[in-house]
Amino acid sequence: MIEVKNLVKKYGDHVAVDHLTFTVEKGQIYGFLGPNGAGKSTTMNIMTGYIGATEGEVLIDGHDILKDAQEAKKCIGYLPEIPPVYPDMTVEEYLHFSAQLKGVKKSEQEAQIERVMKMTEVEDVAGRLIKNLSKGYRQRVGLAHAIMGFPPIIILDEPTVGLDPKQIIEIRQLIRELSKEHTIILSSHILSEISEICDYVMIIAHGKLIASDTTQNLTKMMQGQNIYNFLVKGEKDQVRQALEQIGGIEKIDINPYREENIVDVTVECSVEPAHDGRDVSADEESVKTTRRDYREEIFYALAHAECPMMASAKYVSLEDIFLELTEETDAQNINKKEKRRFLLKRPKAEEVQDNGSDL
Amino acid sequence: MAAIYKKEVRSYFTSMIGCVFIAFALVIIGLYFFANNLYGGYPYFGYSLSATIAVFMILIPILTMKSMADDRRQKTDQMLLTAPVTTWQIIFAKYLAMVTVFLVPVCVMLFYPLIMAAYGTISYAMAYASIFGFALMGFLGIAVGMFISSLTESQVISAVLTFLILFASYMAESIADMIPSTAWVSMAAFIILILAVALIVHSMTQSTLLGGGVAVIGVAVILILYFMDSTSFQGAFGDLISSLSLTGHFYNFASGIIDIPGIIYYLSGSFLFIFLADQAVEKRRWC
């Protein structure tokens, strides 16, 4: 459906997109995930033909976005970061313009505008000037423009920004509904959104594609490891001693926490099931079910040493993968083998704030 | 393309710019028409028209200022550029929309010679030739304004710059008259011009070789030409300046001449600036 080959976009010396290559198959929802300034919007702008790439090519359904622009653009509906709406037009006028611009047949225009308005729920504001609409409605009008003409590919740049929770749920439902007949690519820096609606995730940081897999696989990759993270009240050595009693622990990492007397402990345990000795590394599915659960053992060991556990590990989510991967790139030391090993880290206080605004 | 054209024309009338432009144009032309032709009884409509040119130097930038700049500021250019239309179609549709608004007062003008004819004998040919020339001049002015608008995001900058350029071009003949027509002055002026061009080339391409090359070759060619035949340099720079005059050909039309080079001048000039606007939009997509 879409082939992106070796895409590079430079702004002067700044490399916004760095040799990006991926393909998009028909009928799935793809998610671009990345922190602010990762190159998501730039990539989307290049894919839709809004800006040109410094190097590389984009093929939409076999049509080059530059050489065969008209045909390629017919296949795409695009909602940019800021909805491209004309403030001096009413919603209805705007959608008429959108339909004409996209070359929807005259006989079908009325019916299609009605259908699109219904899908995006903008019928109530059809006669109002766009400049008087709230951000949420503008977003929906932009979305209506993107799906106008029902192109096979719909690209949405942060479609749920500025919407209230109820609207977000509605938009997600709409996206799911659309995905039955359309290929959808959406970008977001909100992880829960991506993990909820996308079949496939592409994580981008610093213009590079650093992970791309199905949502399931990415989460499974994490669960394949036995890592626990928790806060314990007690002295460093005391805690270490208590934990060393448990067999099968490979690595204990103890860091000070922002509260006094409390330490942040990360324990990496062997994946082997220990009890029945079955080789499970070959079969990932069974790892999940037969993997030895250390949580109880850790709890009793610490209780025995009179070090109360203050908070336990959070569930390993896409968020951790995301943080881990993007941080690795930040450190500029991406080792390809290391990429698959995610060390679970509780972000430090100041990091929580930084990332918090992002996630 | 029809969609963009319709939308643009409509936007001129919903945003008041179009109405203000037409109203103001009609008031000014009407005033001069009344004062010269009706009250003063002067039988040449072209005379009234040429008096209004200075006002159009202000009106045209108002008409063109938002054409490209506003789309860019509001990011609606993303909608147009990702739609299945070419950049050329977008630009040309916008140009046609502005021409349409401009033609409204021009069409009203078509009735003025008829009104004059009711009170005496006039030369229709002269009157309509001048209106024709006026329309052509307007087309070129609009193309210049659209090009300037495509360079900036700010409507104000666009309007002020367009006004300055149109005004300079309006004054071109008077300026040319003040330049000494001796050969060596022209030669020196051409050399300064070449150096300026070389500087622009250098700053755009960041290439010392290219900028330097333009300067060296340009200056050498001028010097060689000058020493071969210095008489042809007499008044040459003044001619160059006055050839940039927007109004020069219009005065021919106003005096009843169907000025074929004038038609070519205005149309090819319009085309050049539409092309430049197209290039400006294309260029921005690449850096």
Task: Give short descriptive properties of this protein.
heterodimer; A: 359 residues; alpha/beta; Rossmann fold; Alpha-Beta Plaits; 2 domains; six-stranded mixed beta sheet; four-stranded antiparallel beta sheet; 13 helices; 14 strands; 37% helix; disordered C terminus; B: 287 residues; mainly alpha; 14 helices; 81% helix
Structure annotation, total helices of chain B: 14
For the record, the count of structural domains of chain B works out to 2
Mean pLDDT of chain B: 90
> Rounded to an integer, what's the Rg of chain A over CA atoms?
24 Å
Please estimate the helix content of chain A: 25-40%
Output the radius of gyration of chain B. 22 Å
The 3D shape of chain A can be described as elongated
Reported for the largest beta sheet of chain B, the result is: none
**What's the CATH superfamily of the largest domain in chain A, by name?**
P-loop containing nucleotide triphosphate hydrolases
Distance between the termini of chain A: 30 Å
What is the CA–CA distance across the termini of chain B? 26 Å
Largest β-sheet summary of chain A: 6 strands, mixed
Could you name the CATH class of the largest domain in chain A? Alpha Beta
Secondary-structure element series of chain A:
EEEHEEHEHHHEHEHEEHEHEEHHEHH
Pick out the low-confidence regions of chain B.
Answer: none
Instruction: Give me the count of strands of chain B.
Output: 0
Please give the oligomerization state of what you see: heterodimer
| Class inferred from helices and paired strands of chain B | mainly alpha
Order of helices and strands of chain B: HHHHHHHHHHHHHH
Question: Might you state the CATH topology name of the largest domain in chain A?
Answer: Rossmann fold
CATH architecture of the largest domain in chain A: 3-Layer(aba) Sandwich
Transmembrane segments (chain B): 12-35, 47-65, 95-119, 125-149, 156-176, 182-201, 208-228, 248-276
GO molecular function, one term (chain B): ABC-type transporter activity
Main location (chain B): membrane
Keywords (chain B): Cell membrane, Membrane, Transmembrane, Transmembrane helix
